[in-house]
Write a structure and sequence with these properties.
about 260 residues; Rossmann fold; N-(1-d-carboxylethyl)-l-norvaline Dehydrogenase, domain 2; eight-stranded mixed beta sheet; binds NADP nicotinamide-adenine-dinucleotide phosphate
Length: about 260
C-alpha cells in the first residue's frame, strides 16, 4: 500500500467521519482525532479506535498525514495553530486556497471529495470524484495513491477550477436540497406526505445521468403555461420567500426557451 500509514484527523464533522472510516478500511491507521468539541472528537475516535484531543497543542506530531476537515472559514485559522509538522497537511474544502497550509508543513495539498456527506449516512467512496492538488509532484503522486485506494475517480484539479466545481456543486446539490425542503413545507401546509415526491425526485436525478439538464427540463415555465403559473403564485401567498424563488426560477426557465417576461 502506498504512503500514509499514520493519519491525524483535524475535525470530526461529516467529512472527517466518512473519510476517516473509509481510510481506516483501506488498512491505514487513524492515530488521533482532534475536534474543537471534546465530545465530537471522542465519538469519532471511538468509531475509529483512535486517540482524541480537543487541544491543538496536543496534536500527535508523529503522523505522516494530517487531514484538516473543518468549516471552510476555520481551515486557515486551525492550520495556522498547528505549527510546522513533518507529515503532509491537506484539507478537504472545495473553496479554500491550498496556500493556507503553507505554514503547517513543507508538504501540503488538497483532497476534495465531490460528494455530499452526512455523519449518519455511510458513504460509498468507490466512484466519488476526488479532486487532488499538491505543492510538489512527489506530494501529488502520494496523494493520488491515497485517493486511488478509495475511489476509481481521481482527478488533478487546480485551486481555480476547484472553486468553480464547488460553486457548481452548490447549485446542483445544496440548492436542490433546499428545494426539497421548500416542497416539504408546501406539502405539510396541506397535510400531504413528502413520500409522494420521492419517485419524482429520483427520476429527476436519474434523467440527467443520460440527458443534458436543458433537454430534461419540464414544467409550466418550460411549456409557457402562464395561467397555471399565476395560480401557483396565488397559492404561494403565505410563503413569500418561496414565491420569490418561484418567480425568479420561472423567469430564468422562460428565458431559456426564448420567452422573456414570462411571469408578467
Ligand atoms: N459535507 C459535505 O458534503 C462536504 C463535501 C466536500 C467537502 N466538504 C468540506 O469539508 C470540510 C468539512 O465539512 P463538514 O461538512 O464535515 O463540516 P461539519 O460537519 O460542519 O464539521 C465541521 C467541523 O469543523 C469544526 N469547526 C467549525 N468551526 C471551527 C473553528 N472555528 N475552529 C475549529 N474547528 C471548527 C467543527 O467542530 P465542532 O464540532 O466543535 O463545531 C467540526 O468538527 C469543509 O471544508 C467543507 O467545505 C464538505
Amino acid at each position: 500500500m502506498s504512503g500514509f500509514q499514520n493519519i491525524v484527523l483535524i475535525g470530526a464533522g461529516n467529512v472527517a467521519t466518512q473519510l476517516g472510516i473509509a481510510i481506516q478500511n483501506t488498512g491505514r491507521k487513524i492515530v488521533q482525532v482532534y475536534s474543537r468539541t471534546e465530545e465530537a472528537a471522542m465519538k469519532l475516535a471511538e468509531k475509529l479506535n483512535s486517540a482524541y484531543t480537543s487541544d491543538l497543542g496536543k496534536i500527535n506530531r508523529d503522523g505522516d498525514l494530517y487531514i484538516v476537515s473543518v468549516a471552510d472559514d476555520a481551515v486557515g485559522k486551525v492550520a495556522a495553530k498547528l505549527g510546522m509538522l513533518n507529515g503532509m497537511v491537506i484539507h478537504t474544502s472545495g473553496s479554500v486556497a491550498m496556500e493556507v497550509l503553507r505554514e503547517s508543513s513543507a508538504n501540503y495539498g488538497i483532497l476534495y471529495p465531490l460528494q455530499t456527506f452526512s455523519k449518519s449516512r455511510k458513504a460509498d467512496f468507490s466512484n466519488i470524484p476526488f479532486c487532488v492538488e499538491a505543492n510538489s509532484n512527489e506530494n501529488l503522486q502520494k496523494l493520488k495513491g491515497l485517493a486511488e485506494s478509495l475511489s476509481g475517480n481521481v482527478v488533478e484539479i487546480d485551486s481555480d477550477q476547484r472553486k468553480i466545481l464547488h460553486l457548481a456543486a452548490v447549485f446542483a446539490c445544496n440548492f436542490t436540497n433546499y428545494m426539497y425542503g421548500a416542497a416539504d413545507d408546501i406539502l405539510k401546509g396541506s397535510n400531504l406526505d413528502f413520500d409522494l415526491l420521492r419517485p419524482l425526485i429520483m427520476e429527476t436525478a436519474m434523467k440527467v445521468q443520460q440527458m443534458n439538464p436543458e433537454v430534461a427540463q419540464t414544467g409550466p415555465a418550460m411549456r409557457g403555461d402562464k395561467r397555471i403559473m399565476k395560480e401557483h403564485i396565488e397559492l404561494l401567498e403565505k410563503y413569500p420567500e418561496y414565491r420569490k424563488i418561484y418567480e425568479i426560477l420561472s423567469e430564468r426557465i422562460g428565458e431559456r426557451r426564448g420567452e422573456e417576461g414570462i411571469m408578467v
